[in-house]
Design brief:
Elements (H helix, E strand, L loop, with lengths): L15 E4 L3 H13 L5 E4 L3 H10 L4 E3 L7 E4 L6 H11 L3 E4 L6 H6 L7 E5 L9 E7 L5 H11 L3 E5 L5 H9 L1 H18 L4 H21 L4 H8 L5 H11 L2 H19 L1
Parallel strand pairs: 1-2, 1-4, 2-3, 4-5, 5-6, 7-8
Antiparallel strand pairs: 6-7
């Protein structure tokens, strides 16, 4: 580890560089530019074909294959690439760091950067691709309140952000990181149920998707618990009560709880 933190980036360097131009890196780029079109951003992408796609899609930004100086750096690369990328950030003066690499601890990132570098670790999820992400962030040893606010400002461009201690990021992975997959299972089952009940598939797909979207929106827009909202839909002896009885008999609720815990435990093992 180097002895000192890098000096502030000199004038003329970008506000931010995103190392890794994959789906999540581009999602962050798109959200940030939509929120602040004047923001100067560099994307570092080593795959030539992908770099060419990014230049076409975002002609106003710099796309390069080399890490450079910046006021701040987002690490959006594969976990096994983190140490090498951090070494390049240390050499060039990449400023404070936000990592969205799954499973790579703050300690690992800090050890690969100059001592004193502010590091924030994040766990986003794939709905960030459409600006509807749910991310959690954890502050590193040297990250001050303004560094956390900086990380929040980046991730809030593509969704909501919660601040947690690092040891809870595995639980975040089990819930919101893996959660979209659980929802897709529910969505697929609802569609198949609609088809089995006699609906045309296209109609079932439309109704199921909008039902999930509307139910989530209803919960987020109000102040009622899921249990209270469920009760509002459920008349004694009615159709919803009949359906809920089957879900309870099949332990669907318990299965979803167990899925979150299992994903959390696997995250801990991989870390």
């Amino acid at each position: 580890m180097a002895d000192t933190a890098p000096d502030p980036a000199p004038d003329g360097v970008p506000d931010l560089q995103i190392v890794g131009g994959g789906r999540m890196g581009e999602a962050l780029l798109t959200g940030l530019l939509a929120a602040d079109p004047g923001r100067t951003v560099r994307v570092v992408e080593a795959i030539p074909a992908r770099a060419a796609e990014l230049r076409i899609a975002h002609p106003s930004i710099e796309v390069t294959d080399a890490v450079g100086a910046a006021s701040g750096t987002v690490l959006a690369v594969k976990p096994h690439q983190i140490v090498d990328v951090c070494a390049a950030v240390a050499r060039t003066g990449g400023g404070r760091v936000l990592s969205i690499a799954a499973g790579v601890t703050i300690a690992t990132i800090e050890a690969a950067l100059p001592s004193g570098t502010p590091v924030v670790r994040a766990m986003p999820n794939t709905p960030a691709l459409i600006g509807q992400g749910a991310a959690a962030i954890a502050a590193g040893t040297h990250a001050a309140d303004d560094d956390v606010a900086w990380a929040e400002s980046i991730l809030s461009a593509v969704g909501s952000v919660s601040v947690v201690p690092e040891h809870l990021l595995d639980a975040v992975t089990g819930l919101s990181g893996s959660g979209p997959a659980y929802v897709f299972v529910v969505l697929d089952a609802l569609i198949e149920g609609g088809v089995a009940a006699g609906l045309p598939r296209e109609t079932a797909e439309s109704l199921a998707g909008q039902t999930l979207l509307g139910a989530a929106g209803l919960y987020l827009a109000g102040d009622k618990s899921p249990g209270e909202l469920r009760a509002q839909v459920t008349s004694p002896g009615g159709t919803t009560a009949a359906g809920l009885r089957v879900l309870e008999q099949r332990a669907v609720r318990s299965a979803l709880i167990d899925a979150v815990i299992a994903a959390r435990d696997r995250s801990i093992e991989l870390g």
